[in-house]
Design goal:
The structure holds 2 protein chains of 2 kinds. By secondary structure, chain A is of the alpha/beta class. Chain A has 4 helices and 5 strands, in the order E-E-H-E-H-E-H-E-H. Chain B is of the alpha+beta class. Chain B is built from 3 helices and 5 strands. In chain B, strand 2 and strand 3 form a beta hairpin. In chain B, helix 1 runs antiparallel to helix 2 and helix 2 packs antiparallel against helix 3. Chains A and B meet through helix 2 and helix 3 of A and helix 1, helix 2 and helix 3 of B.
């Protein structure tokens, strides 16, 4: 059940913190995911960038954590940016219309660029 | 797998077991040769239903745990999830999601991902019965 674990790591790229997440985000791992997101927000960074490349599953518990981050960032003009979502996650974002709330990108440099220009 | 065969799983009403339930259903769906995107739909729907059971359910004499029952049908896979609840109103499945709210996506997603969804709430048990058809896609 290795994939059920969640691993998070913050990397500094081009002057911005990028949250790398690997594993499955569900009701059990969502608190850990939320803590990792909050740690990046605590650094004062206006735009949250999350590398989703190694996230194999995310349900409404994960979306809730991202919506909570959006609520914190929006008043300061900040955004939540998801990079390299799987086809399944991308589809759920469309079904729930959360693709109108979170920006999605194909690469980290694109997300960083968008954050700098926002 | 033969039509009519039944697989049942009982998990404690605790978040760490939700993944076990959805991976078990994933295994069944793979054996039944559902398409990869349909397997993802099933995993997510089962995960959301079990999450609701864990978050909003409670242990009752009749249902101390969360029960997952899968039945192989000619048209696809039926999954029934049963858990104890305190007396309450039958929740509505939202017609459309509200992206401004942090919650309320679970039932909407289940309805979108599965071909049939029936909710049944009685005095102390909540039952959600879902059907995923092989070869059809709800969305």
């Amino acid at each position: 059940m290795e994939g059920i674990r969640l691993e998070t790591e913050v990397k500094e790229m081009d002057g911005m913190q990028v949250l790398d997440v690997a594993g499955e985000i569900d009701v059990y791992t969502a608190p850990q995911f939320k803590d990792a997101v909050n740690n990046v927000l605590a650094s004062g960074q206006k735009h949250l960038i999350i590398n989703m490349e190694n996230v194999s599953y995310m349900d409404s518990s994960g979306f809730g954590a991202l919506l909570s981050a959006t609520k914190r960032l929006r008043p300061q003009g900040g955004t939540v940016n998801l990079v390299k979502c799987s086809g399944a996650i991308d589809r759920i974002l469309r079904i729930t219309r959360l693709n109108t709330v979170f920006a999605t990108f194909e690469s980290i440099p694109e997300a960083i660029e968008a954050g700098k220009n926002a | 797998m033969r039509q009519g065969e039944i697989m049942q799983l009982e998990i404690p009403r605790s978040p760490e077991y939700v993944a076990i339930a959805r991976h078990a259903v994933e295994g069944i769906a793979r054996r039944m040769r559902f398409a990869p995107n349909q397997i993802e739909d099933l995993k997510l729907a089962v995960g959301e239903a079990c999450t609701n059971a864990v978050k909003h359910g409670c242990a009752t004499e009749d249902s101390p745990t969360v029960e997952i029952k899968c039945v192989v049908l000619p048209e696809g896979l039926s999954v029934e999830i049963r858990n104890g609840i305190e007396a309450g109103e039958l929740p509505c499945i939202p017609v459309k999601p509200d992206p401004t709210k942090e919650g309320g996506f679970g039932l909407y997603m289940i309805r979108q991902l599965m071909d049939e969804v029936i909710l049944n709430w009685d005095a102390n048990t909540a039952i959600i019965k879902m059907l995923k058809k092989i070869g059809a896609s709800a969305v």
